[in-house]
Design goal:
- By secondary structure, the protein is an alpha+beta fold.
- Among the domains are: 108-158 and 184-214, no CATH class; 261-442 and 487-508, ATPase, nucleotide binding domain (Nucleotidyltransferase, domain 5).
- It is built from 18 helices and 23 strands.
- Strand 16 and strand 17 form a beta hairpin.
- The longest helix is centred in the last third of the chain and has 26 residues, at 508-533.
- The mean pLDDT is 93.
Length: 534
């Protein structure tokens, strides 16, 4: 056991739109935070891309800012542990330079290949091996798209990373990935190794040499490059850990891991992520509908999860809509004040006046079903529906989507641990408890993603002998009081969920027709613009 209790551990959480660097003591006390916005671009054909070198620069600048905040205490830093946005494709060449801009998890250009693979004879086997359904967000489907459309560019790639892997390379020069993303993308989750059969099914066997070595950040670290240490102001012996993907680190830091219980965890951020933990492979039961993700969990076991594309993004849309309406009168709104007011209105408004299906992302939906054409909508409105009713519907829709995801994962858990920006909403906490008919417990652990990454470094350095003992110190004291379901609402929500699910299953052809119409309209508009230019 490491007895250096004055060590400082840094967790880096490289999100899609925000980079955070957080310093912790070895007992999980948050010491300092630095953050910097990151940028990404969305272009035609559902593409979402990020400049890899800019992301690297932002991470280094944010790390430098954190070191500045630590001042003389920075000499106590022993390790930096990396997590980041999941899925996507970050390609480098032999010289370590980006081949192209990174394709993000928001990118859905490869949606047609998802349908092709789902309808193939080998899809059941692919799902059995990886435990994870194909969707357009993933590295494997994006690589296949590039293989089909631009193989010359893929020929330039020496390594295919995820975001955190690329940043680990930038800090250490080591080409590696973690077990979680490696195995759900290209591996065998039971054998814990890359699977040649998976690559064969995907038609990517000849690209096997682009897959980085698998490294477990609980047992392995690499020295930070000397020039990076000097640039950011860290000690020359600083170690770097490659932690799990952000969703798993957030689950670790947010309370999913609780031995001997049937707890689950929901992260309500821009997207919604819903997880269950299985401590042994023998407990692992894959969804019959072949949906969701199965990800190796630090220290053993697996997290099974469903992710829906849009959670609090729906609330952002509602706020934008209200702001636009107010702007027509020449006025502006205080967004934070409006959000607080909406939270109060939602709790005062009767439930079930209508239903909102929260598929607001232009990328459609990916859990518990995949449909790039899926779109949001209200049903059941009448002339008496007001803005408070609409707000209640939006909040309920987010929670009904969460239940839809858990419904696909099997028996409902005994308790939900809630994290993410949505956990700050009293309305969402209470509605989720009643929709799920389960207690909901939030956690006051700040920066759970960075904390989870730092926890892995704490174990690797020997401050704890296991993840379990680390959780008892870093997480357990931060769990809040459980919010119980409102028994007056649970029966109504059971009925509402049945209607919700039946309606979304009936919308497939409508979504497809609307997508075709949008495509036709886009083509007509482009033709008209070209005609005007002559």
């Amino acid at each position: 056991m490491n007895t250096q209790q004055d060590d400082i551990l840094i967790g880096i959480d490289a999100g899609t739109s925000l980079i955070k660097c957080v310093a912790f003591s070895v007992v999980g006390e948050l010491l300092a935070v630095a953050s910097t916005p990151n940028e990404y671009t969305t272009v035609s054909d559902n593409c979402a891309e990020q400049d890899m070198q800019l992301t690297r620069s932002i991470v280094l600048q944010t790390l430098t800012d954190l070191v500045s905040k630590l001042g003389s205490e920075a000499k106590r830093v022993k390790a930096v542990s990396l997590t980041g946005q999941g899925d996507g494709m970050w390609l480098i060449n032999r010289a370590g330079e980006p081949v192209q801009k990174a394709w993000l998890w928001l990118d859905s250009r490869a949606a047609s290949l998802v349908t092709e693979l789902e309808n193939s004879a080998d899809y059941a086997r692919l799902f059995e091996l990886t435990g994870t359904a194909i969707n357009a967000s993933q590295n494997r489907i994006q690589m296949l798209w590039l293989e089909r459309t631009d193989p010359q560019t893929l020929d330039l790639a020496d390594c295919s990373f995820h975001c955190k892997d690329y940043l680990y390379f930038c800090l250490t020069g080591v080409r590696a990935t973690d077990p979680g993303e490696a195995l759900f993308t290209y591996g065998d989750i039971k054998k814990h190794q890359y699977s040649p059969e998976v690559l064969s099914i995907l038609g990517l066997s000849h690209r096997a040499d682009t897959l980085p070595d698998i490294v477990d950040g609980l047992t392995t670290s690499s020295p930070m490059l000397k020039d990076i240490c000097e640039q950011v102001g860290l000690p020359s012996d600083t170690q770097v850990n490659l932690a799990a993907v952000d969703v798993i680190c957030s689950a670790l830091g947010g309370g999913l891991y609780d031995q001997g219980t049937q707890t689950a965890m929901t992260l309500l951020g821009t997207t919604g992520i819903h997880m269950r933990y299985s401590s042994a492979s023998s407990e692992l039961t894959l969804p019959k509908d072949k949906t969701g993700y199965t990800i190796v969990f630090p220290g053993g076991g697996h997290a099974q999860l469903q992710t829906n594309m849009s959670a609090t993004m729906n609330i952002d849309w509602l706020l934008d809509l209200i702001a636009d309406a107010v702007s027509l009168t020449g006025n502006t709104i205080d967004r934070e004040a409006l959000l607080m007011q909406l939270d109060q209105y939602v709790q005062e408004t009767p439930l079930g006046n209508a239903i909102y299906q929260p598929y607001i992302s232009t990328a459609g939906e990916r859990g518990p079903f995949f449909d790039a054409n899926a779109r949001a909508g209200f049903i059941g409105l009448d002339q008496h529906t007001d803005i408070k009713d609409l707000a209640r519907c939006v909040y309920e829709g987010i929670c009904l989507a969460a239940r839809d995801c858990y419904d696909d994962l099997g028996e409902l858990p005994t308790e939900i641990r809630l994290s993410g920006g949505g956990a700050k909403s009293s309305a969402l906490r209470h509605i989720l408890a009643s929709v799920m008919n389960r207690p909901v417990r939030s956690i006051d652990r700040e920066e759970s993603g960075a904390a989870g990454a730092a926890m892995m470094a704490a174990v690797q350095l020997g401050h704890y002998d296991s993840i379990d003992s680390c959780v008892q110190t870093w997480v357990a004291p931060h769990l809040g009081t459980a919010i119980e379901p409102n028994t007056d609402h649970t029966d109504a929500y059971n009925e509402l969920f049945t209607i919700y699910k039946a309606h979304r299953k009936s919308q497939t052809s409508t979504w497809e027709s609307l997508a075709n119409l949008r495509q036709s309209s886009s083509c007509i508009s482009k033709t008209a613009e070209q005609g005007d230019s002559h």
